[in-house]
Amino acid sequence: MNPTPSHFIQKLVERAAARYRRAGRYPWHFAKGKLGGDPAFAALLAYGLLGGRTRIVDIGCGQGLLTAWLLAAEDAASEGQWPQDWSMAPQAFHVHGIELMQHDVTRAQQAMQAEVRGGRASFAAADMCAADFGSADAVVILDVLHYVPIAAQDEVLRRVRDALAPGGVLLLRIGDAGAGLPFKISNWVDHVVNTLRGHRLGRLYCRPLAEWQRVLESLGFKVQAQPMSKGTPFANVLMVAQL
Ligand SMILES: C[S@@+](CC[C@H](N)C(=O)[O-])C[C@H]1O[C@@H](n2cnc3c(N)ncnc32)[C@H](O)[C@@H]1O
Question: How far apart are CA 12 and CA 114, in angstroms?
C-alpha cells in the first residue's frame, strides 16, 4: 500500500505522538502539534536525510520527538506503508538524545521505554557545551544552537565535526537573522513556547544564514540550505552539511 503523503503524515504523527500518552496530556498534545505542524519532520523522511544513518545524535532533543518520529517511520515502512516517491525509510538506527532539561529527558525515556531498554535509544540530561557526542553518522540540531553564545556555538559545531564519521551529515536548523519580520516572529514564538514549557533560556544568539554557511564551510562541510518553514510564518532554514 502506498498512502498519499498528507494522509500518511497524519497517521505517522498519530503513531509517534501516541507514545507520549503515558507521559501525560501535555507531552502528548505537544507531540501532535509539533510533529504535525513543523515541516522539518516530514521533509527529513521525504528527502531521506537520515536514511542509512545508523548512529544518530540529536542535540537539544527536547522530549525526544525525532526518535519517536523515526521509530514510527520505521514501523510504517516495515508494514509496507511508505509513500512511493519518498526516499528510503530510516531503519536499524540508534538515537542518542542530549537535552538540558531533565523533565524533557524523563518524558523521552518514558515515551521510548522499550527502545531505551532494548538499546535502540538513549537520552542524557546534559549541556551540549560539555556533553560527549560520541561517534555518529548523523547529528541533528533543530532550533537549539541560538540558546548559547556565538563562541560556544562554534565550539559545539567543531566537536560535532570531530564526532562525525567520514561522509557523515549534520542537519542544522537555524532561524535566519537576516530574514526581517518572519525572523522576529520566530524569535517571539520561541520565547513564548519555551516560557510555557518552563524553560528559562534567556537571551538568544542569532546569525544570518550567510554567516552560518561560512562557519560550516570553514569546518570542512559542504552545505546545502533549504527553507524549512513552509506553512508557518517563520524564517527557518535547514542546513544539510555533509563531510
Ligand atoms: C526549540 S527546542 C527544540 C527541541 C527539538 N530539537 C525539536 O525540534 O523538537 C530547543 C531545545 O534545546 C534545549 N537546549 C537549550 N540549550 C541547550 C543546551 N545548552 N544543551 C542541551 N540542550 C539545550 C532546550 O531545553 C529545548 O528542549
Answer: 19
> Could you count the other beta carbons within 10 Å of the beta carbon of residue 135?
11
Number of domains into which the chain is organized: 1
**Sheet strands side by side (includes 222-227):** 121-125, 94-99, 55-59, 136-142, 164-175, 236-242, 222-227
Structural domain of residue 198, as residue ranges? 5-242
Q: Which residues of 40-78 are buried (b: 16+ CB within 10 A; e: fewer)?
A: bbbebbeeebbbebebbbbbbbbbbbbbbbbbbbbebbe
DSSP state of 176: B
Atom 17 in ligand 1: which residue has the minimum CA distance? 100
Nearest residue to 127 via CA among 158, 96, 148? 148
Mean of all residue pLDDT scores within the chain: 90
pLDDT in tens, 7-44: 999 999 999 999 999 888 999 999 999 999 999 999 99
Ligand 1 atom 1, closest CA: 143
**Could you tell me which residue, 204 or 178, shows the higher pLDDT?**
204
- Give 143 Cα–ligand 1 centroid separation in angstroms: 7
CATH for 209 = 3.40.50.150
Q: What is the pTM of this model?
A: 0.92
Q: Do residues 69 and 16 touch, judged by C-beta distance below 8 A?
A: yes
Residue 147 Cα to ligand 1 midpoint, Å, equals 8
Would you call 219 helix, strand, or coil by DSSP?
coil
Residue to mutate (ligand 1; options 41, 59, 99, 123; most atoms within 8 A of CB): 99
Residue 212: name the closest of 182, 178, 166, 162 by CA: 178
Query: What residues does 57 pair with on adjacent strands?
Result: 96, 139
